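Troubleshooting log. The previous structure file for this entry was overwritten by mistake, so regenerating from the original sequence record. Sequence copied from the archived sheet and checked twice against the printout by T.R.
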Amino acid sequence: MQIPQNRFRDALRAGKPQIGCWVGFADAGIAEALAPCGFDWLLLDAEHGPNTPRTVLEQLRALAPYPAHAIVRPVETSVALVKQYLDVGAQTLLLPMVDTQEQAALMVRAMRYAPEGIRGMGAALARASRWNQVDDYVNQANAQMCLLVQAETTLAIRNLQSIAETEGVDGVFFGPADLSASMGYRGQPSHPAVQETILQGIATVNAAGKAAGILATDATLARIYLDAGALFVAVGVDTQLLVRAATALATQFKLPTASATVPSQTSY
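Regenerated output below.
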């Protein structure tokens, strides 16, 4: 059995924009329902979604027959969690709150087996190797890993060039909500100062030869980021898609005197 090729990582290296969707319900059925919808990638969120390695494993199995690439975001940037999510079969991780080049370099090592890294050797117990049925997994795995790190604070922005230039970092993702709060504009991810910082950040990441990414549920903003050179852009969140569609449907059949407000389309 051959190791799966990381086509998402290969597309980023080829400069091909990849459009994604956030999956926060922590449910394999919802992940599978989204899988054939046409997204290039789906983000399984264990930072703000109620996921664990076990629920992520179930969703990875649900997504396996489909072309949409699974990306996993752990609850924190941790060597131990990186090991767990790689072992259950993730090949691409999005790691939150990476503020320094030192943190980025440690995560590069966490993604790889020795001598290049420090990933624990436990392939016989791992779905990633199909329990040692993937040919020469431990010598093939490093080449298929994709590391995306999140720049979400003013400290990360100050260190952005060195983070992006870290060998083994494939992309940098900008978190508008946390970044806006860190800049003193909590709840205002569309503030001009925040937007200017993000656009400058995308340029910095591109100049380092890496892929820039972002979550933008506002279509106009998403296209601005794509035009600026962002290569992996999430344009929807499953929770928002369901709530907005359900609210709009219910409102359509309400009596004229009743009123309902469709939730705003903002990123968390």
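The first strand starts at residue 18 and ends at 23. Archived copy saved in two places this time.
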